[in-house]
Amino acid sequence: MDQLMVSASQQLLIGEALKYAAHNAPNQEAFVYENQRLTYREILKNAEHLAGWLQAQGIGKNDKVGCLFKNGMSFVELYFAVSLVGGVFVPVNFRLVSKEIEYIVNNADIKILFVEEEFNNTISPILDLLQHVQVIVVDGSINENHKKELVTYTSIFIATSVYTPPTDLQDADAHAIIYTSGTTGKPKGAVLTHKNFYLNAMNRTFHSQTPRGINELVVPPLFHVAALSRLVSNCLMEGTIYIQREFQPEQILKTIETEKINAMFLVPSMWNFLFQVPNLQDYDVSTMISCGLGGAICPVDIKKRIMEVFKNGKIIEAFGQTEMSPSTTYLTGEDTIRKTASVGKPAINVRVRIVDDEMNDVPTGEVGEIVYQGPTLMKEYYKNPEATKEAFKGGWFHSGDLVRMDEEGYIYVVDRKKDMVISGGENIYPKEIEEVLYSHPDILEAAVVGVPDAEWGESIKAFIVMKPGRHLTAEEVIEYCKQNLASYKKPKLVEFIDALPRNASGKVLKIELREENSKSSIH
Question: Cα separation of 103 and 97, whole Å?
């Protein structure tokens, strides 16, 4: 038995990361949410209590536990509790509608589902359709009576609980299933292991040169892997994470000032909206030393604005995707100025190739698909062997991202493979046009897609969100593009909209923009 416990401690397990922090820095504040401030010792105690309750419900290795939570302390406690028992954590996007949630919960074989009171009405219509769910735990009050057993989250901590550490857990075992955005078809569940998460956290602390005890503000939803992975790196650096429930730009600035925040990660759209706060310059943001970027391709103009506003902060840009846990490349330090348009170089244990459709390496400077190998690569798509086989074709994981590499080894994202437009035989990359549109002083946001064209096959359409009080005509937008791009790349159509459709991770849902135009074509 003693030897088994020693073997468990030798694994790269997420529960062990929390234990190390609680052992080395027990009184250090670990997580702060509203009026709750828990030390590493306290968060471990709560997680172990919850883990004991999960074990009493029959949850062990490979059993799936899901949650429909917004950001908060309950999310953190549950995440570590599931890790401690060897279960598989399945965070569900709370912005989904009932039928979408039903699909994920059933597809993932979730046995216990934790739900915030706020989502009682979302869950009610599908409660009796959740095939494998045995218990629903509500964080708040219960207002429904169904066949499922319903308990409250607080009642778990009132009852006695005994946690027994599993001795058969390996770091190659499944740790979490994160469902991809589902921008095309049904979402796929990427099965990520303990080792995947652990090494991604180590990569991040290495490349960002994160100092010990750093104060970090986490704003994006924790069900997204980029935010969730920060719970692990926080333990490794014995820092303090300040959790914001939802994206509120002014509250972000207030928290930076009052809590002396040193680091923050936002997706590009969040940075953009942060810069629209009218009295932005009135807040003291001098403690910020690390400005994290990722989750979507970032326009260069937003990077420049970050450097202007957060003068003491360096940009730490991470590029990647869910299936890679998620970061694959990093751009840091002086490179953020010298190579602003780049997403940096590969992470220390991520192997990268840039290939054509036949898996041949493309010459330096030419566009190809970036493919990956390495210990942060997912195990598989859950219960989807066909998609897994396709993704791992040729022994490398196919990202779907089109990139090029310069002579110094820096990688530049050209576009998503599926977003590329072919017009009159010419390859056109919407990202290039979007960069130009973002540089216009009156444009807040822009997205470019291909639309059917009877003559050219496809043509370019730009969707524009204007800054408040600003106005442009379609002709002015097209002319601006013509002045900054080859003529064949300029949009033929321009539509002004109030907001771009986005998924919860901040990515623009171009499939929705395309669908609006699929029934009509240019003649």
Answer: 10
Same fold, 2-183 and 247-417: yes
Pairing of strands 240-243, 263-266: unpaired
Q: Please give the Cα distance from 232 to 375 (Å, whole number).
A: 16
Compute CA 312 distance to the chain's CA centroid, rounded to the nearest angstrom: 25
Sheet holding 240-243, edge to edge: 36-39, 29-33, 240-243, 215-218, 263-266, 290-293, 314-320, 327-331, 345-346
The CATH code that applies to domain 2-183 is 3.40.50.12780
Q: What is the mean pLDDT of the chain?
A: 92
E strands, 154-310, in order: 174-179, 189-193, 215-218, 240-243, 263-266, 290-293
What is the arrangement of strands in the sheet containing 457-466, beginning at the earlier edge strand? Answer: 443-453, 457-466, 493-496
Asked whether the beta carbons of 52 and 161 are under 8 A apart, the reply is yes
Digit-coded pLDDT (tens) for 251-301: 999 999 999 999 999 988 899 999 999 999 999 999 999 999 987 778 888
Taking each helix axis as running N to C, give the angle between helix 73-85 and helix 14-24, from 0 to 180 degrees, rounded to the nearest 10: 110
Delimit the domains of the chain by residue range.
2-183, 247-417, 420-517
With cut-offs at 50, 70 and 90, classify the pLDDT of residue 4. low
* CATH number of the structural domain 420-517: 3.30.300.30
Total-model pTM = 0.87
Residue pLDDT, tens place only, 411-459:
999 888 888 887 877 778 888 899 899 999 999 999 999 988 877 788 8
> What digits encode the pLDDT tens for the residues 349-380?
999 999 999 999 999 999 999 999 999 999 99
Could you give the angle at the alpha carbon of 259 between the alpha carbons of 257 and 261, nearest 5°? 75
Stated as kind and residue range, the H or E segment containing 230 is helix 225-237
Q: Which residue is associated with the tokens 């599926």?
A: 418
**For residue 474, what are its two tokens?**
């379609």
Using the 8-state DSSP alphabet, how is residue 196 labeled? H
Helix pair angle (14-24, 225-237), 10° resolution: 40
Handedness of CA 354, 358, 359, 364 (dihedral sign): negative
DSSP assignment string, 7-35? HHHTS--HHHHHHHHHHH-TTSEEEEETT
**CATH code at 247-417:** 3.40.50.12780
The secondary element (H helix, E strand) that includes residue 155 is helix 153-158
